[in-house]
Design a protein that fits this description.
This protein is 58% helix and 10% strand. By secondary structure, the chain is an alpha/beta fold. Strands 6-5-7-8 form a four-stranded parallel sheet. A four-stranded mixed sheet has the order 9-11-12-10. A two-stranded antiparallel ribbon has the order 1-2. The radius of gyration is 32 Å and the shape is globular. The termini are far apart.
Amino acid sequence: MCDSFLNTLTFYISTTFLTTYSISKKSGSFKSIVHSNFHFKAEIIFCVSVFTYGINIYKEREGVEQRMFSNSRLEEIFIQISKNEFTTIKELTNLFHVTDRTIRTDIQAINLEIAKYECEILLKRKSGYYLMSYNKDKFKELQNQMEKQTNVLTFNSLDDRIKYILQKLLYSQDYVILDDLANEVFVSRNTLQNYIKPIKETLETYNLIYVSKPNLGVKVFGNEKDKRECLINEILCKDTPTYIIGFTKEEQMLFKDIDLFEIQTLVNQLLNKHDIHASDYDRKNLVMHCALMISRVKTENYIPFDVQFPIQDDICELIEQLCIQLENKFDIQITSGEKQYIYLHIASNTHMNIYSVNTVKLQNQITKLLEVIYEEYNFDLRPDAILKKDLFNHFSSILSSKNIYMNKKNPLLNTIKTNFPLPFEITLTSTAKVFSEALTEDEIGYISLHIGAAIERCFTSMYQKKRVVLVCGSGIATTRMLEARLQTFFNSKIVIVNKISYAEFMHYDFANIDFVISTIPIQSDNIPVEVVDFTLKNTDIEKISKRLSHMDKKANFVTKFFDKQLFLHKSNAVTKEDVLKELAHLLENQNIVSDTFIHSVLKRESIACTNLNDIFAIPHPMEACSNETKVAVAILDQSVEWNDKHEEVQIIFMISIKQGEQKQFEHLYDLFIEIVGNTKLQQDIVHSNSFEEFLYTISTVDIFNS
């Protein structure tokens, strides 16, 4: 009915305009008709009013609701503030990854939109933001509107529609007619066809088959375990900072007849009762899997029982208690296969190791792993007891999960690969040489965090604190303030040897002193001086940080690794293998590597591709095998496909490391991280037509000028 109404309305408007346009052609002026013809103006006003009314009727009938807030972040900020007594601006900036200024602007926007409900968000000094209501009835109306919106289906993006279609297909027992599906996501049949290809590709990764039959529609076939894995991984968004905080509208829509808070309470109570430890993220995962099980059982979709995986006695009691409470609460019957499903997810989301590992063998493998890291990368992590304990616990969990074919997804994988490329690379290549069973990138990502933390501890223990002298001319109070501020920000970097006056400064012996920090604008030919405000403002902190960083940098850092003879700029199209071989050939011609170097590079690529994003790659061999540490550079005018995900790159740094120089090479990874996160720098490098331009471009990066 709505479609016919809109079609009639569109016809009426079109007829009005065409008639008016025909009249205007005869009179010679469309503009004069608009300004002089009262009836035309009336027609326009009528059409606009009726069209607006028609759209509202359409939305009401189709379940499309006007949102209270102009964007989802405003809604999420409002919810966050309204559910707490006070919410600090720091909590909001950390939660939504925006600046203080953006939060303040958003609060103003929210207040404009909730003013009609006679309430506003206020700021209390030293406490935070809170919601103030001036009319109980209006506030109740606001609460009802928010609750109503929670149950409204909205599609703000292509991704929202694809998720809905996946959910619809995976839950449907019968064939789904595409026209009906198109109407549900408010798109045409032709537009819906554009969604089918990515949906098919997604389903294939889970061994699910998309079947289309004329006059029947479409349906997804596959086993229940794969369907659930697809639902959890593709429908729910686990990589947002708010995942562990409450339940999103999308989660509540997916499980709309299931009380997620009730499941959360049951799960937490039982885990605590049985003294089973799990992170907030893993507890949320377990709640989601329980909710998914309930929703699938309600639609009579069951996991079959597997005799290969009996539930161990020490966890039977927990499983039985959880299942009894879930059965009573949600009026379902949990089969033996479903109990195994819960069992496996408790195992993969807690610190339980349901399959015992060979302790001696694992400890020997960890010892060998640390030996490989020392031999190949020159990082001596062997004495780190914290690392050994963490690695043992994590590998035990990984190996236990592998025994039951549970590969845990790592929502931080891309962040880890981008921000910690060196620890990830060390872990990837080193574990490949120690463990016979290949680890997934998700597992390597988790392990690399332990390796990265150990490297940080290694460098911190090796760091030689700089010896400084404070010069203050305003008395002991300001000196104490400056000293306290310096200790807050630079406690691990400096040691304050003495606090002196300006008069003492003039005759002071600065032997064994690295530099002076002064509140007085003084200069000296004998010792570096940093002049700061006694309150140590942000600009002062930056100056001291740059001083410390500069003291740690080595001279001629850039030219040490890059060379004109190792630079390529390609204007024509090339393949990945061609450019890798050409760069390796440049290194070989300079006697930096042998002819076996390229084979090691290709072997490393076969394990996992080395692109850090969709423009930048750092191919390298499996081990340090060069006569000199250098970077061969290729800049491509036409991007080259780098992996089976069809990601393309234009900037290629082929790394060759000399044995024993791995540790100093870590500083170059700062440049890699800067390239990954700086789109302007990426484009400046891509447009460098010569080695001189390229060298100038990277020389302007902050890490080289601090």
